[in-house]
């Protein structure tokens, strides 16, 4: 049972957590043996998990527990009016943190497009390189995956049906990131 890169990306968390049945796990193992891109995604995911499991990464500074205890004791001794003002300060701090996180999220999303430009459905069909594929493309008559392939692609499963690129796009098909990505890179090289 072969799996696509998209299926691997969807199931990679369950794979790392060992929550897949043996058949799915074997299929992913076979895919990792053949696909260096998915292997890199797996290794990166495992590295992130390893970093966050290391208690030194998120270690609290010395004396933190004592300062926290003193602050909690002080807050408990405050009157109700003073607690409301402290609560408003905490709300303001959260709002400022959220406002500071927005540019960071934007930067991470931009970096993802720069670092992983060929993963998934990377470019809208209105971009200059989007029409590098011309002529006929193959779609599966048996699958509901709505992905078109370069004729002869090994990732096309089931009986092929051939359509013109424009017709496939109009019907809602999107390009196979593997075969169309390779084809596009070859055309630009």
Care to describe what's here?
This protein has about 190 residues and is mainly alpha-helical. It is about 60% helix and about 5% strand. The strands form two sheets. It has a two-stranded antiparallel ribbon with strand order 1-3. It starts with a helix and ends with a helix. Residues about 115-130 have low confidence and may be disordered.
Q: What string gives the helices and strands in order?
A: HHHHHEEEHEH
Strand line-up of the largest beta sheet: 1-3
Q: Report the β-strand fraction as a percent range.
A: 5-15%
Instruction: Please state the CA-atom Rg, rounded to the nearest Å.
Output: 25 Å
Structural class category: mainly alpha
Runs in which pLDDT lies below 50 for 5 or more consecutive residues are 117-131
Query: Count of DSSP E strands?
Result: 4
Q: Outline, from the CA principal axes? A: elongated
Largest sheet: 2 strands, antiparallel
Average pLDDT confidence is 76
Helix amount = 55-70%
- Total count of helical runs of at least 4 residues: 7
- What is the distance, rounded to the nearest whole angstrom, between the alpha carbons of the first and last residues? 34 Å
């Amino acid at each position: 049972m072969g799996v696509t890169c998209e299926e691997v990306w969807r199931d990679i968390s369950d794979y790392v957590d060992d929550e897949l049945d043996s058949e799915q796990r074997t299929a992913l193992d076979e895919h990792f043996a053949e696909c260096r891109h998915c292997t890199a995604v797996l290794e990166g995911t495992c590295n992130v998990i390893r970093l966050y499991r290391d208690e030194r990464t998120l270690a609290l500074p010395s004396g933190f527990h004592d300062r926290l205890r003193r602050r909690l004791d002080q807050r408990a001794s405050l009157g109700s009016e003073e607690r409301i003002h402290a609560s408003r300060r905490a709300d303001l701090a959260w709002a400022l943190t959220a406002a500071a996180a927005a540019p960071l999220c934007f930067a991470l999303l931009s970096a993802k497009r720069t670092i992983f430009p060929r993963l998934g459905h990377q470019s809208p069909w209105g971009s200059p390189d989007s029409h590098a594929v011309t002529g006929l493309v193959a779609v599966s008559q048996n699958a509901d995956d709505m992905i078109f392939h370069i004729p002869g692609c090994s990732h096309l499963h089931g009986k092929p049906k051939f359509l013109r690129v424009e017709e496939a796009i109009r019907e809602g098909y999107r390009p196979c990131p593997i075969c169309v990505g390779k084809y596009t890179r070859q055309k630009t090289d």
